[in-house]
Amino acid sequence: MGPRAGRRRTELLAAAARLFAAHGYRGVTIDDLGRAVGTTGPALYRHFPGKEALLGAVLVDISERLAERGRALVADSDTSEGALSALLRGHIAFALDEPDLITVHDRELGNLIDRDRRTVRRLQRGYVEEWVNVLAELRPGAGRSTLRASVHATFGLLNSTPHSRGELSRDAMADLLLRMGTAALLAQTPASG
User: Fold this and answer.
1) Which of 17, 59, 126, 169 has the smallest number of CB atoms closer than 10 Å to its CB?
2) Could you read off the pLDDT of 137-190 as tens digits, one per residue?
3) What does pTM read for this prediction?
């Protein structure tokens, strides 16, 4: 794929995420998608076989980017504390800068074809395990199931930004999410008794 085709593909993915978030997958036509990037609907078939494939590409793309970023952030960190902070900051940036993708994932995952849904789930599991591996070093007494549940709960908090940001500035919301996410992930599991 050449640079121009790559740019067009990126434009299409961004436009599709924006339109699917605003109107739902079923509420967007191929013509709507074409108009959003300054072309005709049928011209999209040069890049994707159809709207279903475009939805799959949107969700697989973000899952791949998050997984790759997670691996890189952990690899570039000298300490577990640094890795956790980097993971949190990276996910917070995603949540604040790409809220349409959170909305599309929440609402439209069920519209993916099986192959794309399996790919998204596999990539997401790998991303979660990056977090769990870091937390296992910081909370050695906690079981992996508890750590995994902590990560998923924290994602719920971080991914609430399309609904919870309100009037806070981006920086204020990022700081709030970092403090809350850190506290949630490092919360000690109460002793059973």
Assistant:
1) 169
2) 999 999 999 999 999 999 999 999 877 777 889 999 999 999 999 999 998 765
3) 0.88
Which residues lie below 8 Å from residue 17, measured CB to CB, with a gap of 6+? 58, 98, 100, 101, 104
How far are the Cα atoms of 71, 81, 106, 110 from residue 129, in angstroms, in the given order?
Answer: 10, 16, 20, 23
Nearest-5° angle of CA 158, CA 163, CA 168? 80
Angle (CA) 70-72-78 rounded to 5° is 105
128 Cβ neighbours under 8 A, 6+ residues apart: 148, 151, 152
pLDDT tens-digit series, residues 29-60: 999 998 998 888 888 888 888 899 999 999 99
Rounded distance between C-alpha atoms, residue 174 and residue 102, angstroms: 16
- Domains, the chain, ordered by start: 51-186 (1.10.357.10)
Q: Phi and psi of 10, rounded to 5°?
A: -60, -40
d(CA 128, CA 125): 5
Task: Report long-range pairs for 54-57 (Cβ below 8 Å, ≥24 apart).
Answer: 54/12, 54/13, 54/16, 55/16, 55/20, 55/25, 55/104, 55/108, 55/111, 55/112, 55/116, 56/112, 56/113, 56/115, 56/116, 57/9, 57/13, 57/16
